[in-house]
Amino acid sequence: MKGKKIEESSVILAQQMNPQDANPAGNVHGGVIMKLIDTIAGVVATKHARANTVTAAIDRLDFHHPVYVGNLLTLKASLNLVGRTSMEIGVRVESEDLITGEVRHTASAYITFVALNRENKPVELPPLILETRDQERRNREAMARRKVRLLEKEKEKACQDRPEDCA
Length: 167
Known about the structure:
Blueprint: E1 4-5, E2 11-16, H1 30-49, E3 52-63, E4 72-82, E5 86-96, E6 103-116, E7 128-129, H2 133-161
Parallel strand pairs: 1-7
Antiparallel strand pairs: 2-4, 3-6, 4-5, 5-6
């Protein structure tokens, strides 16, 4: 299977935040931002796999600054890691005050997706071609997150099987 470059599936999405996206104080709901993050990550995953994809895990979602009604929210998403059937997408969210021009790093997220065939079974993915030092660094960091995630799953399973061993 032929590999694909990160830029082949990277996506940028920009959307102005409106009153229906916020609470009465004018702060945009975190859930609205989370939905946009999941949506853009899904587009990246589908572009890479050229198959249906589903969210398998959200490893991290950190909010750094609030977003207000009227702000332009810009999401940048790209692949960090591609395994046999799963892939990690990193999403950076920035908000811009359109009046002052101030841009703030609002949130970051790491989301794992799995590609599925017509029978909803995982399918093999094209490998990822890393071209820059930054891409290699992000790939290494994603591998470390994957290792931690899999170890945590093993611990949870063992705890379910043997509650007396859980501490």
